[in-house]
Each structure stands twice: as C-alpha cells, then as structure tokens.
Write a structure and sequence with these properties.
The protein has 269 residues and is of the alpha/beta class. The chain contains twelve helices and eight strands. It has helices at 12-23, 38-48, 55-61, 74-81, 100-106, 139-149, 163-171, 173-190, 195-216, 220-227, 233-243, 246-265, and strands at residues 5-8, 31-33, 51-52, 64-67, 90-93, 113-117, 127-133, 153-157. The protein starts with a strand and ends with a helix.
Length: 269
C-alpha cells in the first residue's frame, strides 16, 4: 500500500479500523493517527507502531483522511483542518447523520468526500460499512474506501439518499439484537434457567441463525417456517409476538432511528 492514510480522532471504532488495516497488509509506516489526549496518542503508537501527529500534520501529509470523531465535534475539527487540506485529499467521514455536502462546504472546492456508516462489530471484524460518494468523489475514491473498511468486515455502496435508512437498519442494528438477547435472557430466567446458561443458549442460537441467513440463501420466512411445526411450541410463541405487535414495534423503531438521523443531518441535534 503506497497511499498514506490518517485516522483522526482515534477512538474505539477508529482503532478497530486501524488494526484491521494493518492485518489487511497496510504498513504501519503508511498510517498516521491523531487523538485528543496525548496519552492516547502514545498508546496507539506503542500498540501499532504508527506515527501519532497533530490534526494539521495529518492533513498536510496523508493522502486519505478518515474522520472518526463524534458528530458534535465534527464542526470544530473541520475548522481546524480546512486551512491545511488540499483539494486532492480524499476525506472519509464516519459521522452519523452528517451529509457529504457539509464537508464540501467547509473544505476546499472540489475536495472528494466519501461518507461511511459502519457499526460496532468492526471491533470483531464483522462490520457492515455502508459507503456513499459525495459530489466530487469518483469510483476510485469509493474503491479506496472499500479497501480500507473491508479490513473490518463487509462493505456496501448505496446512494447517499439511503444513508439515513442504513444508519437506522445497520448502524444502530446491533443494539436491537442486544436488546432482544437481553429480553430473551430475562425470559429464560423466568422459565427457571440460570442466567449464564440462558445467555449461552440464546447467543449460540443467534450465531447459528445468523450464519444460516448468510450462507443458506433462503428467505427468512422459509427458515422460520422450517422451525415452526403445526400446533407446536414455536407457532405459539410467534402468535404471542404478533399479538403484542412486535413486528409493528420494530418498524416504528427503525423509522424513529431514521428520523433522528435526518434531524442530525439538518443540524437540529
């Protein structure tokens, strides 16, 4: 890899991305990091052998800048970067809800911007990273973003108009599954199982179901029907889920997450 890449504001997701890039073949000498706290910068340098620099230094020397700060901190970061970012730099944003046009307004005219929504399974190399091009980004820029984020999972290109929906579905998605596992664990305790055994049973069921969804090519309805025998236990459980409006609640929850992403994009956060 000959391109120099800088990860700015290297928190948990930024560090996961950094380590994934190194495992994927990027040389530590081609990677730069920035961090708000000096001790964090030192930790990253010692752990990965990468150079820790200031935001301004990263902007001047890296070919690609990956901005991983929180959305509420993005404005101040862009004001700091703007005087130092040439228009030929690729800027990749990982901030939820902020459109590429926001970055284009704050940076030099013509700066290519790519928006990426990843999720926390990046920490275990099972992320889904959704990638969209700004008005000045081309196919080569999208390919570079894919090369970077494929180190921590899968990637998917979508039009930017679909990013809010992807944020609701995938960016926040792991939390919905954790919520479901939490509820099912409580149900297992109610049914008489110790917490640790209920947890292990549910987690393995979740892993097995996910692998079958990924590898079988079957529609989820078909896979559910395979478990649902006539007058059996599963159909009684499904009836209760339907009676309690779980499907409708999930749809409403995702709509609420999408709407919140739109509010963040409009600056009403």
């Amino acid at each position: 890899m000959t391109q120099k890449v800088a990860v700015l504001g290297t928190g948990k997701i930024g560090e996961a991305l950094l380590s994934g890039m190194i495992r994927g073949g990027w040389a530590p000498s081609d990677l730069l990091v920035t961090a708000r706290r000096p001790e964090r910068a030192t930790q990253l340098h010692e752990r990965y052998g990468v150079e820790a620099v200031s935001n301004a230094e990263a902007a001047k020397s890296a070919d690609t800048l990956i901005l991983t700060v929180k959305p509420q901190d993005m404005g101040s970061l862009l004001r700091e970067l703007a005087p130092h970012v040439p228009a030929d730099r690729l800027v990749i944003s990982g901030a939820a809800g902020i459109p590429t046009s926001y970055f284009e307004e704050h940076l030099a005219a013509g700066t290519p911007v790519v928006r990426v929504m990843t999720n926390t399974p990046a920490l275990v190399d099972e992320a889904m990273s959704v990638i969209s091009a700004g008005s000045h980004a081309n196919g080569a820029h999208l390919t570079r973003a894919e090369e970077i984020f494929s180190g921590v999972g899968k990637t998917l290109r979508v039009p930017e108009s679909q990013q809010d929906a992807c944020t609701a579905l995938s960016g926040s998605g792991p939390a919905y599954f954790y919520f479901l596992v939490e509820a099912m664990t409580d149900a297992g305790i109610l049914l008489g199982l110790p917490r640790d055994k209920a947890h292990d049973l549910i987690v393995q069921a979740a892993i097995g179901a996910a692998v079958m969804l990924r590898d079988s090519g079957e529609h989820p309805v078909k896979l559910r029907e395979n478990v649902t025998s006539p007058a059996g236990t599963t159909i009684n459980a499904i009836r209760e889920l339907e009676n309690h409006g779980v499907r409708a609640a999930l749809i409403a929850a995702l709509e609420a997450a999408r709407d919140r992403s739109r509010e963040l994009a409009s600056g009403n956060g």
